[in-house]
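Ops channel
N.P.: pipeline sanity check, posting one input/output pair.
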């Protein structure tokens, strides 16, 4: 379907030229053109019936184009521009020796002046610039031209009208066919651009109206300008109201918000909770800024219950995939100096994106610390992925770390599988027991850390990843390096920020607190009401705890299940811990602890008391180990 154009011709010669162009161009024109003859306000009046039927653009010239643009601001008005050739033709038609005057718009006169510099034209002794809006002054300019002795005036339809009244000859500055065709082509192009803009705007409006959040737009004076349909669904009582009633009601709703503070830059936090009747809404503001100035604000409204439900759903799905860090810094319990030190380090390290190496014995809470750092960091909304490097064979660990393509090996998942680096993109990857990673894979890990890209097993393309690495080990990596079991370059790549988790024996003052907390949890789990006798806590604080916090937790659970009565006595705890103590001092770590205590100057009586065994038992075990 062709577009429709109304061409308002302020002079009959323009109308005739347009008819010639239409006839000559024929089917080459992409529009249907209706010609209306009329000048200035008369042109507006005569074109009104055609415009009201529906047109896509209006074409006219000079002052008539100006008044049409004011009368129809929503319709593009294209002006027929007079060019140098039109001016030259008009001047050449005037006999020589005539006193010529020129009254027109500045762009037309400037074209004449530029042309006069290179051509031998009739001298124009009088001319006057006309700016938009000065059309009523043309009669005065014509009077001035007469007083200046002008014989012939060049100008538009208004100039001709007033020249006739003053008895001066005039020539209409006619636009050529080429300039008329140029204006038609410009109108056609403008129509196509507006059509595409309308289509794009419709898509945007559809998106906004079907967004799951309510949207309201305010101008810089806090006047409500627009809202989407979703916003009205939050307030069903407004659905049957008219536009003005809806506008007034929505303004009342937002009057309780920080709208005015947002528009005045007084609100540093653009989020708030809006309470309306018995419902709470999460409200987020976005300032509209133009050239550094606030010109409005957009409100994004969502029911708080719906938002909470969505967050819970997302977290539940992430938890199903094991991609959520459950522990925070508050879950690391203890008031000892050692615990306060590592918690302070964690808070500092969380503010960076640097790699962290967590060292410490088994059971000291290395993974808990890794999760706490993640939840303190800017990546807390991203995934937390953990993998134990000692739990897989070399080939299986490689596929778990880097993923694999379809058909990479027999038994693989059809379509391939993403590795933990891809799963952790945008978040944190925790590499537990890093010291047990096979030497050959350490090189691949080093390249990923250096280049921030991974290549799947059997793949041929690199995949960019944005992952923070937290590694942990209970080994002495420097000894592993000396034994050629761990790469020196990988060690320095991992050992950027370091946290050493203290052994439980290094923070004995925390043992009573931890034991009581574990007891409360076990009472809740097994529906019991047990408590410790006072001497039990003193006894627990003296034990070696080779298994650290994990071993203490296991002991508390065991004693809750294996003892009768409400009070856990010292004899009961001794019976439950006897095997643990013997095993602790018999294993390699236990023997190492005995050596450390001897080096510290402790005698056998003191060591036996610390380890919770008799002096003779300790002597026999010491002799057997030698």
């Amino acid at each position: 379907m062709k577009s429709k154009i109304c061409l308002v011709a302020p002079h009959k010669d323009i109308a005739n030229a347009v008819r010639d162009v239409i006839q000559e161009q024929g089917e080459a024109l992409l529009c249907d053109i209706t010609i209306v003859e009329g000048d200035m306000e008369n042109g507006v009046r005569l074109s009104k019936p055609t415009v009201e039927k529906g047109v896509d653009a209006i074409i006219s010239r000079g002052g008539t184009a100006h008044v049409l643009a004011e009368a129809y601001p929503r319709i593009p008005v294209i002006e027929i521009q007079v060019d140098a050739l039109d001016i030259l033709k008009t001047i050449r038609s005037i006999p020589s020796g005539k006193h010529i005057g020129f009254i027109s718009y500045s762009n037309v006169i400037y074209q004449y002046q530029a042309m006069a510099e290179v051509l031998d034209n009739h001298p124009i002794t009088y001319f006057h610039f006309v700016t938009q809006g000065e059309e009523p002054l043309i009669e005065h300019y014509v009077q001035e031209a007469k007083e200046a002795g002008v014989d012939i005036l060049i100008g538009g339809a208004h100039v001709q009208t007033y020249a006739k009244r003053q008895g001066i000859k005039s020539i209409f500055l006619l636009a050529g066919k080429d300039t008329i065709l140029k204006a038609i082509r410009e109108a056609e192009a403008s129509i196509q651009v507006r059509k595409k803009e309308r289509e794009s705007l419709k898509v945007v409006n559809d998106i906004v109206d079907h967004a799951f959040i309510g949207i309201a737009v305010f101008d810089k004076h806090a006047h409500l300008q627009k809202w989407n349909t979703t916003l009205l669904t939050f307030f069903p009582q407004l659905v049957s109201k008219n536009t003005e009633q809806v506008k007034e009601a929505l303004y009342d709703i937002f009057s309780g918000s920080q709208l005015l503070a947002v528009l005045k830059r007084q609100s540093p936090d653009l989020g708030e909770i809006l309470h309306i009747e018995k419902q709470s809404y999460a409200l987020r503001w976005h300032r509209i800024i133009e050239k550094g100035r606030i010109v409005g604000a957009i409100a994004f409204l969502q029911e708080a219950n719906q938002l909470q439900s969505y967050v819970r759903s997302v977290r539940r799905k992430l938890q199903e995939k094991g991609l959520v860090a459950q522990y925070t810094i508050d879950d690391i319990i203890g008031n000892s100096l050692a615990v306060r030190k590592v918690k302070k380090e964690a808070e500092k390290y969380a503010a960076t994106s640097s790699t962290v190496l967590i060292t410490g014995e088994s059971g000291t809470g290395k993974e808990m610390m890794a999760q706490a750092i993640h939840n303190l960091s800017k990546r807390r909304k991203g995934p937390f992925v953990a993998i134990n490097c000692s739990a897989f064979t070399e080939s299986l660990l490689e596929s778990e770390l880097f993923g694999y393509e379809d058909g990479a090996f027999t038994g693989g998942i059809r379509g391939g599988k993403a590795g933990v680096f891809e799963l952790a993109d945008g978040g944190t990857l925790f590499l537990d027991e890093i010291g047990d990673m096979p030497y050959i894979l350490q090189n691949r890990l080093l390249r990923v850390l250096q280049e921030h890209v991974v290549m799947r097993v059997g793949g041929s393309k690199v995949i960019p990843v944005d992952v923070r690495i937290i590694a942990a080990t209970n080994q002495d990596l420097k000894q592993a390096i000396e034994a050629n079991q761990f790469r020196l370059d990988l060690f320095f790549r991992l050992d950027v920020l370091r946290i050493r988790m203290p052994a439980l024996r290094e923070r004995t003052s925390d043992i009573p607190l931890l034991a009581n907390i574990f007891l409360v949890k076990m009472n809740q789990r097994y529906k019991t009401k047990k408590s410790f006798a006072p001497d039990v806590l003193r006894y627990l604080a003296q034990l070696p705890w080779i298994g650290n916090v994990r071993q203490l937790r296991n002991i508390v659970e065991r004693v809750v299940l294996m003892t009768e009565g409400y009070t856990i006595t010292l004899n009961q705890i001794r019976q439950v811990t006897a095997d643990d103590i013997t095993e602790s001092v018999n294993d390699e770590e236990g023997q190492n602890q005995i050596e450390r205590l001897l080096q510290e100057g402790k005698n056998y009586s003191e060591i036996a008391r610390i380890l919770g065994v008799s002096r003779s038992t300790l002597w026999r075990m010491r002799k057997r180990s030698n």
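N.P.: looks fine end to end. The chain has a mean pLDDT of 83.
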